[in-house]
Automatic annotation (TrEMBL):
Reported function: Could possibly oxidize fatty acids using specific components.
One GO term (biological process): fatty acid beta-oxidation
Name by which UniProt lists this protein: enoyl-CoA hydratase
EC number: 4.2.1.17
Taxonomic placement: Bacteria, Pseudomonadati, Pseudomonadota, Alphaproteobacteria, Sphingomonadales
Catalyses which reaction(s): a 4-saturated-(3S)-3-hydroxyacyl-CoA = a (3E)-enoyl-CoA + H2O; a (3S)-3-hydroxyacyl-CoA = a (2E)-enoyl-CoA + H2O
Length: 256
């Protein structure tokens, strides 16, 4: 528990709930600092295999904190490289699932997209409304949204501020699945538990290679995949995983 986050451990799953209800979970510097601390601890904890980030029923997060940004000028923003702290969040090596109900706007949508995949409640609404404030996304939204849903929808959303509902977000490939709002957190934790039960090195390798698809060309990306695939044949868990299959039993992982 921190001031802006509720942190729970559900066996090998870390469940983080954004907790600034009066500001619809707007992301200020404190949320960033606390989330980075919690995420670093999660990444370093061998007992934790997957993290879920969620918000409230009304809002995953309604954006970066407008009140915190309002008085800042170019010199403040540029000299402090405002928002660059979020890049550290994306360097988390273990998987993070966003469980989104209600508004995921601006920085909220960007945070969800920084996670490895998004599970959406049927109440979820995604948008990049920064243009209405005479600015742009600043936490990677223009890039990640374009990668996720293609130019046409990303451009329309950024230029008009239009929100996408859960059904459209699923059709467009922004979210992996839509579930009833009342089941969102349990479904996300269940999904995270499935990931957490996998061999840890293979989890990291799978995350790294899927992410590589967004940075590399196809030939380079396939090469990267193959090298990591080969590397896993040097692990105890690969021996165990294949032996367990042949012997028709569950594998027991050492993370080595
Ligand atoms: N920041 C700060 N406070 C917020 C934010 C926010 N993003 N969103 C909502 N709040 C606050 C409201 O001010 C209000 O507080 P108060 O009661 O003190 O007035 C409280 O949360 C409840 O909000 P509403 O009364 O507005 O609730 P409604 O149900 O009427 O409306 C909405 C919900 C539609 C979500 C509405 O709150 C809204 O439009 N929020 C702003 C959405 C937005 O524009 N988000 C983008 C923010 S900018 C951003 O994320 C990235 C900027 C990148 C800049 C790049 C710089 C480098």
């Amino acid at each position: 528990m921190t001031e802006t986050l509720i942190v729970e451990r559900r066996d090998a799953v870390t469940l983080v709930t954004l907790n600034r209800p009066k500001a619809l979970n707007a992301l200020n510097s404190q949320v960033l600092a606390e989330l980075l601390e919690v995420t670093r601890a999660y990444d370093a904890d061998a007992g934790q295999g997957c993290m879920v980030i969620t918000g409230s029923e009304k809002a995953f997060a309604a954006g970066a904190d407008i009140k915190e940004m309002q008085a800042q000028g170019f010199a403040d923003m540029y000299s402090h490289d405002f928002f660059a702290g979020w890049d550290a969040f994306t360097r988390t090596r273990k998987p993070i699932i966003a469980a989104v109900a209600g508004y995921a706007l601006g920085g909220g949508c960007e945070l969800a997209m920084m996670c490895d995949f998004i599970l959406a409640a049927d109440t979820a609404k995604f948008g990049q409304p920064e243009i209405k404030l005479a600015v742009t996304p600043g936490m990677g939204g223009s890039q990640r949204l374009a990668h996720a849903v293609g130019k046409a929808k990303a451009m329309e959303m950024c230029l008009t501020g239009r929100m996408m509902d859960a059904a459209e977000a699923e059709r467009a490939g922004l979210v992996s699945r839509v579930v009833p709002a009342g089941e969102l957190v349990e479904e996300a934790v269940k999904t995270a538990a499935t990931v957490a039960a996998m061999a840890p090195l293979a989890v990291k390798a799978n995350k790294e290679m899927v992410n590589a698809a967004f940075d590399m060309g196809l030939t380079q990306g396939v090469q990267f995949e193959r090298r990591l695939f080969h590397a896993l044949f040097g692990t105890e868990d690969q021996n165990e995983g294949m032996a367990a299959f042949v012997e028709k039993r569950a594998g027991k992982w050492t993370g080595r």
